[in-house]
Amino acid sequence: MPKRKRTSDQPSDQPSPANVPSLLPQKKHYRQRAHANPFSDHALVYPASPAEYDWSTHYPAFAGSGKTPAFADIGCGFGGLLITLAPLFPDTLMLGLEIRVQVTQYVHDRIAALRATSAPQISPHPSSYQNVSVIRANAMKFLPNFFPKASLTSLFFLFPDPHFKARKHKARIISSTLLAEYAYILAPGGLVYTITDVQDLAQWMRAHLEAHPLFQFVEEEELRKEGKGPILDAVYGSTEEGKKVERNGGEKWLACFRRIEMHRQAPPT
Ligand SMILES: C[S@@+](CC[C@H](N)C(=O)[O-])C[C@H]1O[C@@H](n2cnc3c(N)ncnc32)[C@H](O)[C@@H]1O
Questions:
Q1: How far is the C-alpha of 252 from the C-alpha of 11, rounded, in Å?
Q2: Ligand 1 within 6 A of 36 CB?
Q3: What is the pLDDT of residue 25?
Q4: Whose CA is nearest to atom 24 of ligand 1?
Q5: Any idea what the CATH number is for the domain that residue 236 is in?
Q6: Domain housing 187
Q7: Where is S-adenosyl-L-methionine annotated to bind (predicted)?
Q8: Residue 32 in this model has a pLDDT that exceeds 80
C-alpha cells in the first residue's frame, strides 16, 4: 500500500482504511521519518491561552466536567503508555503530545478504534479509553498555552530522542529553559518520570532536573510505596521504544522527580 500523505496539522476524523473503527490501525500505514526537527516551522495550531482550548472534542464523555488533562506524555510516539494507563485511571484525563503528523494520526486512530470497540454502551467505562487523547504539538513550544498553571499531576518523558551530537543538545526535551515551563504546568507534588536507554542522556536529564530548584529526585522505591507501582511498570515497559530496548537486551535508566514548592524565606527582622 502506498504511503498516505497528510498535510493538515491535526489528526483527521475522516474514515480511512487505517481508522475504520472496528479495526486497530496498523503502524505500517503511518510510517514517516524517525525524527522531526523541533526548530522547524511546523505551522502548528495552538490556543492563545488554556481557557480558549475546548477539551470536549478530545474527551466528549467528560464534556461539562471542567476537567483538563492531568497526565501529559511528551513525545508519546505510538501511544503505548496512554493506552496502558487509560483503564488504570479512568477518571484522569491523559494527553499525548507528538510532533510527527503520521504518528499522531496513528495514536488518534488507535484511540478511536479502542473507544469504538470497548464497552461503548457504558461510557465513561474503565476500559472505554474515553480519558485519553493526543494532539500534534511541539512540546518545546506553547505548553503553557494548552495547560493551565499547576494543572498536571504527572509528566512523562519516555525514551526521548537522544540528539547525541553536542551541537544538537539544544534540541533535547529536557533543558533549564524548558524545566521552567514544566514546573509551571505541574502541580506542587506532581511527578516527572524520565527513562532512557542512553546513558549520556540519562545523566543529562538527571543533572538538569537536580539543578533545578523546583524539582527533587525521588527514589523508585519511595514511589512504589506511595502506590505508583503500576505507573512505574508502564513507564518501564508499555511503550514501543521501551519494548524495543527490552528485545535488544538494552539497559534502562529511570529517574523521577517531584515538583516541590519554594518556601519563601521570612524577611529579616
Ligand atoms: C524515541 S521516540 C519515543 C516515543 C515514546 N515515548 C516511546 O517511548 O515509545 C521520541 C518521540 O518524541 C517525539 N518528539 C520529539 N521531539 C518532540 C517535540 N518537540 N514535541 C513533541 N514530540 C516530540 C518524536 O517524534 C518521537 O515520536
A1: 32
A2: yes
A3: 87
A4: 75
A5: 3.40.50.150
A6: 62-259
A7: 75, 98-99, 138-139, 158, 239-241
A8: no
